[in-house]
Amino acid sequence: MMNYAIEVDALEVIRGNRIVLPGISFTIPEGQVTGLLGPSGCGKSTLMRAVVGVQKVHSGSVTVLGEPAGSRPLRDRLGYVTQAASVYDDLSVTENLRFFARVLNVGAEDIERSVAAVDLGRHTDQIVGSLSGGQRSRVSLAVALLRQPGVLVLDEPTVGLDPVLRRDLWQLFHELASGGTAVLVSSHVMDEAERCDRLLLMREGRIIADDSPGRIKERAGVDDVEAAFLHLVDEEEAA
Question: pTM of the entire structure?
Answer without folding.
Answer: 0.90
